[in-house]
Design goal:
The chain is mostly helical and about 80 residues long. It has one domain. Helices cover about 35% and strands about 5% of the residues. The chain is built from four helices and two strands; from the N terminus they run H-H-H-E-E-H. The radius of gyration is 12 Å and the shape is globular. The chain starts with a helix and ends in a 6-residue tail after the last helix.
Length: about 80
């Protein structure tokens, strides 16, 4: 994520804010997550895409693994359920 923020500096404050919120989150179900982030997209295999910078870029164990970070153009190519 640091590399992404270095290239897309306008995303820094939203990503840092999201990181702080996610570290404190107690999501047990997709509904819990969607109640906080209604624009998040739930993907296959319990993966989630969060809307950062208003779509400009695009839980069970209370652990978040960031597999991809990309622009909205890149996000459009990812499969959403």
């Amino acid at each position: 994520m640091r590399d992404f923020v270095n290239v897309h500096a306008d995303s820094r404050s939203q990503i840092e804010s999201w990181e702080a919120e996610a570290e404190e989150a107690q999501w047990s179900t997709p509904h819990d997550l969607k109640s906080k982030y209604p624009k998040a997209s739930i993907l296959k295999d319990q993966n989630v895409i969060f809307d950062i910078c208003r779509n400009k870029y695009s839980y069970k164990n209370q652990t978040i693994l960031i597999k991809k970070i990309g622009t909205h153009k890149e996000y459009d190519k990812w499969q959403i359920i």
